[in-house]
Amino acid sequence: MRKTITVPEGVLILDYLTRLGILLPSFCDGSGVCGRCRIRITEGMLPVTPSDRSFLSEQALADGWRLACCAVAGSPVRVEADVPDLPPRRQIRNAPHRFGIAVCQDTAALVDLTAVTVVQLCKGSVTDLLARFPDAAAGLETVIVMGEASLPPLPCPVRSLPKPEGTSPEEAVEAGILAMFAKG
Questions:
Q1: d(CA 22, CA 24)
Q2: For 126-155, how does the pLDDT look when each residue is reduced to its tens digit (9 = 90+)?
Q3: Which end of the chain has the smaller Cβ count within 10 Å, N or C?
Q4: Which CATH superfamily is 2-82 part of?
Q5: Cα–Cα distance measured from residue 126 to residue 156, given in angstroms and rounded to the nearest whole number
Q6: Where are the domains positioned within the chain?
Q7: Which residue in 84, 140, 138, 87 sits closest to 110, CA to CA?
Q8: In a 10 Å sphere around its CB, with 0-12 CB exposed, 13-18 middle and 19+ buried, how is residue 44 labelled?
Q9: What is the pTM of this model?
Q10: What is the C-alpha to C-alpha distance for residues 126 and 128, in angstroms, rounded to an integer?
C-alpha cells in the first residue's frame, strides 16, 4: 500500500514513520547499509546523502527517491512510501496475531504469520527483536535459524536449516522467511 505523509522539520524520516506505526522494510535497522527503506519526495527537498548515492541511481535521486533512515527534513516535506498492509505496531496488542522469526547470525526478521508479511527486518538478535516488539512474544509460534545464531529460551519450536552457501545473513533470513511459508 502506498502512503503519503507530511514530515515535520528536524526529524529523521524513518523514526517519524515508525512512530506513526508505518514500518518500512530495513535489514540494517536504520543504519543506511541495506537500501530498503526507500521513500519518494513529493513536496519539499531532502539533501542527497552518501548512503542514497550507494543504493539509488542518479535517475532515482533526480526523481526524488531517498533512504528514510538517512533523511532528515530541514523543512516540512511530503513523502510517499510503499508499506506492507499491516496493523500499526500499537494495534498488534489488540488483535490476535501469530508470529514467526527467521534469524541468521546477527540478522533477524519478525514475520506476521496471520497477515503473511514481514513486520521488521533488522540487525540484532532475537532478544533485540522481541524487545522492540514485546507484544509479538505472546503470539510467537516458530523460529527458523539459518546456519548459526544464539537464541534465548523460547516458548515455541525452533527449526534449524543450513545457511545457503554464498549468501549474506540478510539473504539467508529471506530464505528462512520463505521456508516459514513453504508447504510440507
A1: 6
A2: 888 888 888 788 888 889 999 988 888 888
A3: C
A4: Beta-grasp domain (3.10.20.30)
A5: 13
A6: 2-82, 91-181
A7: 140
A8: middle
A9: 0.52
A10: 5
